[in-house]
Amino acid sequence: MPNSRRNFLKSGAAAMAGSGALFAPQSPQSIPKEPDYALLDAALKEPVLKKDLFANPVVIQSRDLLEYDGNYTCRVRSTDGAVGYCVLIQK
Prior knowledge:
InterPro entries: TAT_signal, TAT_signal_bac_arc. The chain is of the alpha+beta class.
């Protein structure tokens, strides 16, 4: 049988169904009743960016938005030569 995406997915689905993982019932203990809002509020109060890790401010020299086949990459360059990337993949 030739290797193809369709054959790979069929064999993976068959293996999951055979192991019972596809239709495994959940126990009542595993279903959350209500979110812990105190825990969420505490997480929201935490800083997103730890400024103490940066001795000096990072000055952005340029930013580029690159696109290929519906997927996007943002490239940022600082004045001191540092480069950062952020990737966004659309489904």
